[in-house]
Amino acid sequence: MHQAANKSKSILFFIPWMVMGGADKFNLDLMRFLKSSGYKIFVCTTEPSGNEWQDRFETYTEAIYHFPNQLPFEKRPKFVLELMEKEQIDIVFISNSYFGYYILPWLKDNSPRKFVAVDYIHMEELYWWDGGFARFSSTVSDYLDKTYVTFGKLKQRLIDRYHIKPDKVEVAYICIDGEDEFNPQLIPFGQIRNQLQINHDTPVILFPCRLHVQKRPYLMLEIAKRLKQRGNHFVIWVVGDGHERYKMEKLVNEYGLTQQVQFLGSTRDVRPYYRDANMTLLCSILEAITFSSYESMAMETPVLSSDIGGQSELITPETGFILPTTMEETEIFNEQSYTSEEADCFVEVIETCIRQPEMLEEMGKNCRKRILNTFKQEEMFYNLVKEIEELQQKQYIGNIQSDLTDALYVLTHDYNHQKWNLDQKLEQVNQYKNTEFLSKAARRSAEKYLTLIRKELNRHKHIFDDTFHAHSVRSGEAKVSEQLLKTYIKMEITKRMDWKIGHYLKKLSQLN
Predict the structure, then answer these.
(1) Does the pLDDT value for residue 112 go beyond 80?
(2) What is the pLDDT of residues 190-231, one digit of tens each?
(3) In terms of CATH architecture, what is 10-175+379-391?
(4) What is the average pLDDT across 78-99?
(5) Residue 357: enclosing H or E segment and its boundaries?
(6) Distance between CA atoms of 281 and 209, rounded to whole angstroms?
(7) Which of 44, 150, 336, 419 has most Cβ atoms within 10 angstroms of its Cβ?
């Protein structure tokens, strides 16, 4: 196995959570490699979550800190600074963490210890903050030593649209362990088919994903409906869970697809499903290169994918099918985020695959060859860590650029919008000042909720007394990085207040 050059370094990860997903699997695999290379790993999660994969991450980490559960917003910056000093953190790695980006300038300005900061961007999300994490990365680019992206088109996008310097962006494909993990020789054929009593000659289509409109599960159901109407014999395994499942199950009953579409839920080991499937269907409208594509190809299962993100950089005509997408990603929050032409295109390709099993078998062999020849995870991690270590030889010189000030304007606008939402809720609270119209029992409950609201407001009264106006930065009244962090904290506290007061108001409205 490749080993990184230095055996005694420490790295701090900012990640949103620890759940089932491609980005999370990448983080987990990277930590595994770093651990085997002698690194001490510390993790801060920054978004509320059940963190179902925490036990997996604990195997490779020294400590995990769940900020939403353990620390109020205003105490997190100091905690991070003290952690970095105590554990002698050499590298900060940001992956899909909103907080990670907005604390970075402040850390660079205040940490007595020099450190390398890098981030990893999976995709551009135009529907969210006009670019999502790609946008956040560009606003603090002068404080990042390197930005890594999951596919080549995204690198060019960062250069052209977000004006990140070309020498600061590198492609690091997610890749996969095709030898010791996703290897069809390790998994006997027929485990899932026998369990579900599916004949070995029945065409099985795997749909492995979180059930979210971004993945276009309703397009999958439309494809299934049309396949059945055209007399095809097949089964679709839906491996994954999510908010859309209940509605999807109702539609399956309505369409008469209970024999064709089977909901199998989430699983900690998806390999037997790939092993038993004939093809994998991925019809998302927004992705980078899906981890499922790497997994499926390594397991010799060809992929049928929408033409999105960098899918075409992995899937070639010899290994699968890339089908045209006619919808825009900004339309993803809609059950009908597909066209009839798209559904027909998938149906025709699937029918071709069903009629030509020999073609699928040959494609499956080509899939595995491509993964082993071009997308070896061990080599990618080795090169990634080697480059990060080389970055540590360069001296960091801090510069506050205008784009960072622009980031503050954007953030302040978001904070002001949150405060406006909160003000609207406070107006609703006023109607409950007089509780005489309520019954005696309801009046006691109302007073309890009103007391909780007042407590919440008093606890963070400084938010309203100390509202920050972005123009003060233009006149040089405060350091940009400090105000960026302060505004972020105020916005997050306001969001929490907004949610809590909304919850109490809902309780009040139910009283009579």
Answers:
(1) yes
(2) 999 999 999 999 999 999 998 988 899 999 999 999 999 999
(3) 3-Layer(aba) Sandwich (3.40)
(4) 95
(5) helix 357-374
(6) 10
(7) 150
Distance CA 258, CA 351 (A): 20
User: What is the model's pLDDT at position 450?
Assistant: 67
- For residue 302, what are the contacts with CB-CB under 8 A and spacing of at least 6? 279, 280, 296, 319, 320, 321, 353, 360, 363, 364, 367
CATH fold match for the domains 10-175+379-391 and 184-375? yes
CATH superfamily placement of domain 184-375: Glycogen Phosphorylase B; (3.40.50.2000)
Report how far residue 385's alpha carbon sits from residue 212's, in angstroms, rounded to the nearest whole number. Answer: 33
Tell me the CA distances in angstroms from 423 to 261, 428, 457, 505, one per residue in order: 47, 9, 11, 13
Global confidence as pTM: 0.79
Tell me the two tokens of residue 16: 């949103």
Domain residue limits, the chain: 10-175+379-391, 184-375, 402-509
Report the number of secondary-structure helices (H) and strands (E) in the chain.
21, 13
Q: Flag the least confident range among 51-60, 322-331, 338-347.
A: 322-331
Q: Is 138 exposed, middle or buried (0-12, 13-18, 19+ CB in 10 A)?
A: buried
Average pLDDT of the chain, as a whole number: 85
Please give the single-letter amino acid code of residue 137.
S
Q: Is the pLDDT of residue 508 over 70?
A: no
